[in-house]
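Input (structure):
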């Protein structure tokens, strides 16, 4: 009986040490805070959307922001009837269709 208890204790200790030896440490991750001081057009965010190309789109109260993994690109309303301009700076929603086109809705429409 004593020999059985010794074997159980030895087996338990070996199992405990071997499981720690093969355990992987957690992968490090980093958090970066973005606001209107370092890239975003406005800190008030209405919607976040990740498209099929893994671009992050951010709908704010002062424009549409696209983050490509290294920097923000800001799209704003232009009063000069620029056909490439968005309809308003207050972006409410972002979505993507089957063809990969990005659609936004603003307080002035689509």
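Output (sequence):
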């Amino acid at each position: 009986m004593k020999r059985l208890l010794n074997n159980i204790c030895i087996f338990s200790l070996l199992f405990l040490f071997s499981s720690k030896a093969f355990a992987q440490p957690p992968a490090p991750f980093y958090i970066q805070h973005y606001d209107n001081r370092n890239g975003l057009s406005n800190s008030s965010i209405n919607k976040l959307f990740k498209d099929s190309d893994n671009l992050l789109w951010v709908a704010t109260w002062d424009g549409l922001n696209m983050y490509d993994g290294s920097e923000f690109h800001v799209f704003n309303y232009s009063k000069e009837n620029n056909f490439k301009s968005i309809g308003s700076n207050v972006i409410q929603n972002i979505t993507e269709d089957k063809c990969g086109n990005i659609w936004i809705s603003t307080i002035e429409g689509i």
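Notes: The mean pLDDT is 83. The radius of gyration is 26 Å.
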